[in-house]
Amino acid sequence: MSAPFTQTQPGRLRIIGADERMAERRGIKGVLAGASGIGKTSQLWSLDPAATLFVNLEAGELAVAGWPGDEVRVRDWDLARDLACWIGGPNPAMRDDQPYGAGHYARVCEAFGSPAQLAKYQTIFVDSITVASRLCLQWCKGQPQAVSDRSGKPDLRGAYGLLGQEMIAWVTHLQHVPDKNVWLVGILDKKLDDFNRPFFALQVEGTKTGLELPGVVDELITLAELRTEKGEPYRAFVCTTLNPFGYPAKDRSGRLATIEEPHLGRLMEKIRRPAAAPPTALFQVALPAAPTTDTTTQES
To answer: Where does the source fall among the domains of life (predicted)?
Structure first.
């Protein structure tokens, strides 16, 4: 959870008092990952339609055809970047001529209208970061960085390098959206490493985005198919980094259990509740006892 970009003027320092900081309502930023068809987009049904904006990049709205909420359809990277700037405001770290800078924000507001019309939305639901990375890669291939200076031929290394920069800048800007929840949906792939051991990874173009994304957002939740002791399947949210299933997960709030019910609305309500115990009580401050060695057994 992060403070908005527009909180202070560039070059000035403002210390936020403890009471003010505690009273702030800050949005939850997260990634909802899962296999294709597991029901990620259908989590829209668990959100308040009057306070949710559906950013549709995947054209997979068949699962939510009757959902009575607002929607924005995005088909190219320029619009995806402009929309993020419009929602998140200008980034004072950027020059006016750079993406997400004050100049970019002014142009977007002139084209889209006043950002005040976004005030009614509490949650931005982006489906999906997988498709966003594909649109970004297509855009990157047409940029000067994707052309070799020597031969004038396409340079995929340059394109993928630019892809990583663009995607992380886009996600970071959404992370700083003030007072709104932002959820990025992503497809989860099951792969095998060099030793034929299975592992899970987000389906995004390039490697930089998938590696750095968990460190940017507050929550990384995997919607997974688990099984009971009798072998019966059920769906659940896997929420913590230390989990016995090997799914990618992260809970910055410290309020979630390893397994939670698959209801995004109630999950956010639980994150916002006061902690049942002080945060220090959640730390593992003592290491487990070292195993004892039976010397008599070894000697025999």
So the answer is: Bacteria
Q: How many CB atoms lie within 10 A of CB 168?
A: 17
Task: Supply the CATH number for residue 107's domain.
Answer: 3.40.50
For 148-178, the pLDDT digits (tens) are 888 888 899 999 999 999 999 999 999 999 8
Residues near 213 by beta carbon (within 8 Å), at least 6 away in sequence: 31, 129, 168, 171, 202, 204, 220
Are the beta carbons of 116 and 109 closer than 8 angstroms? Answer: no
Q: Is residue 3 part of a domain?
A: no
248 within 8 A of 222, measured Cβ to Cβ: yes
Q: Is 116 exposed, middle or buried (0-12, 13-18, 19+ CB in 10 A)?
A: exposed
Model pTM greater than 0.85? yes
Residue 61 lies in a domain: yes
- Would residue 108 count as lying in a domain? yes
Pairing of strands 123-127, 233-238: unpaired
Domain residue limits at 146: 20-276
Write phi, then psi, for 287 (nearest 5 degrees). Answer: -80, 150
Give the side-chain half-sphere CA count within 13 A for 141. 10
Contacts of 141 (CB under 8 A, 6+ apart): 154, 159
